[in-house]
Amino acid sequence: MKIFIATKNKKKLKELERILTPMGFDVLSENDFNTAFPEVEETGETFEENALIKARAGLKNTGLISVADDSGLCVDYLNGAPGVYSARYAGEPADDQKNNKKLLDALDGLDTDKRTAKFVSSIACVFPDGREFTVRGECKGFIAKEPQGTGGFGYDPLFISEKGCFAVISAAEKDSISHRGKAIKNFSEKLKEYL
Question: Is residue 78 within 8 Å of residue 17, measured between CB atoms?
Answer without folding.
Answer: no
